[in-house]
Amino acid sequence: MNEFTAEVLDEPGLMFADGEDSIDPRVGLMKYGPRTPSGKSEHQVINVGYIGSGRSLGGLEKLFKDMELAITADEDKSKRWKPPFPGLGERSPLNFTFNTQKRWRQTITRGEIRDLKQIRSRKDRLEEAVEIIKINLEVLYAKETPPDVVFIAIPEAMWDACTPSHQDHARMQSETSDFHNRIKLLGMEVGLPTQLMQPKTLRGEGVQDKSEIAWNIAVGTLYKAQRGHPWKLTELEDGTCFAGISFYKERGGDQSRTRTAMAQVFLETGENFILRGDPVEGEKHGPGNNHLAEDDAKQLVKKILRHYRSHKKTEPRRLVLHKRSEFWEEEREGFIKGAGNIELMDFVTVRERHPVRALSSGIYPALRGTMVSAPNNEEHYLYTKGYIPALSTYPASNIPEPIVVKPDPEVSDSSPQKLCREMLAFTKLDWNTSDFCTKLPVTIGISDAVGNILAEAEAQNTSLDIHYYHYM
């Protein structure tokens, strides 16, 4: 082979209530309704707890009220690939209702805000803000019937007091800690999934219009509240264990130490869980990347397979590992030894950018699903973003870039087409958004966000939950 080749892969399908399928998350939800724990199209009532000041809770309650009815996109943001939010309730195709009773309403008082603002150090102000939320979460958890999910409407004054003024994209954080990450850890401790709402979101400011916000809240809340996915892939090979591996640095203590950030594991049933690796003592560093020593790689794969067996009650026939960096020899040997007698294995490097571009002959960019293979067939350039025939458009303004899919030269039992089809499918399994797809497969794409939570010093003493809904 001495030239580039290209082909277009089929769009992966998604399964909704009663086993009905569609390729578009929003279309599927509106036509068939979300999948439920029983798999049937039954109406769900989601008990919602909410924490905030009188003003921020007022904004949140208004948003909940608006979501009871259909919400159309702002005129200047209205696009044919962004259908109106259909509303909630028994007549809604989304088939669920928010139950917001006063007993699940926790108010942050003006006195608490006043006392927080008087604290000199931003670091100490952040700690006080975390403590305020912690107390209110514990009160909600102690209710005879606790809520299914808790919304935290961050008061404007609390936000301003804990946000560095010099940041372009502000976050509530200090030099050593981040408010969002700390709250996620608190939610795990008490067993309540949380949803943080920034003041600008409650004011209706920002890139997303109210219809988009409502869609994403609805999908995220469904996933968190029912502890399960609103949709699943129609085809994901039976007997395969998929895992994305990434790294992060712990905050505090020895900053030179890196821990395996996580292995995010997916089963063909649609279940997924997050595993924190043991401290990495023998890590290897390449240019901008991290690699595992042989024994660390071996132990991590063993941990992945233990959890697979506990869920499936059997060994997988195939193991697929996704990683941002290439597989070094020592690392590869560790993964192989940890996998034991698994029959088939695919180790795949996934990178977000490459200068290679595919140009179409028309006015639109390359089709989503376009797979371009390099002349040596060692790596492939997959357009996970691009023109989508089902939407009759390319839903973005920038020129799409392909991701790089590079099968390991030593461990790759599947065809490049199969590996890329799986990558394409995993771009449709982030339940933190209702968009048609994301650019990166979720095995890799959410690793930074999860790693940031695991990096918090408090995470080292927290009994971490393995479910993604606690991290999103």
Give a quick rundown of the structure.
The chain has 472 residues and is of the alpha/beta class. It is built from 13 helices and 19 strands.
Notable traits:
single chain; alpha/beta; Rossmann fold; nine-stranded mixed sheet; globular; RNaseH-like_sf
Question: In DSSP terms, counting alpha (H) and pi (I) runs of 4 or more, how many helices?
Answer: 13
Computed CA radius of gyration, to the nearest angstrom: 23 Å
- Morphology: globular
- CATH architecture classification name of the largest domain: 2-Layer Sandwich
**Main sheet: strands, sense, barrel:** 9 strands, mixed
Looking at CATH, the homologous superfamily of the largest domain is Ribonuclease H-like superfamily/Ribonuclease H
Annotation, overall tally of beta strands: 19
Mean pLDDT: 88
InterPro entries: RNaseH-like_sf, RNaseH_sf
Coiled coil: 116-143
GO molecular function, one term: nucleic acid binding
Protein name: Piwi domain-containing protein
Task: Give an overview in words.
With 472 residues, the protein is of the alpha/beta class. The protein folds into two domains: 36-225, Rossmann fold (3-Layer(aba) Sandwich), CATH 3.40.50; 234-470, Nucleotidyltransferase, domain 5 (2-Layer Sandwich), CATH 3.30.420. The chain contains 13 helices and 19 strands. The chain has helices spanning 25-32, 54-66, 110-117, 122-141, 156-161, 179-190, 199-202, 210-225, 294-312, 329-339, 416-426, 442-445, 447-454, and strands spanning 5-8, 14-15, 21-22, 44-52, 96-99, 105-107, 149-153, 194-197, 232-233, 240-249, 258-266, 272-275, 284-286, 289-291, 318-323, 344-351, 370-373, 380-382, 403-412. The strands form four sheets. The chain has a nine-stranded mixed sheet with strand order 1-17-18-19-16-15-10-11-12, sandwiched between helices. Strands 4, 5, 6, 7 and 8 form a five-stranded parallel sheet that branches. It has a three-stranded antiparallel sheet with strand order 3-2-9, covered by helices on one side. The longest helix has 20 residues, at 122-141. The model has no long low-confidence stretch (mean pLDDT 88). InterPro entries: RNaseH-like_sf (IPR012337), RNaseH_sf (IPR036397). One of its GO terms (molecular function) is nucleic acid binding. Residues 116-143 form a coiled coil. It comes from Halorubrum hochstenium ATCC 700873.
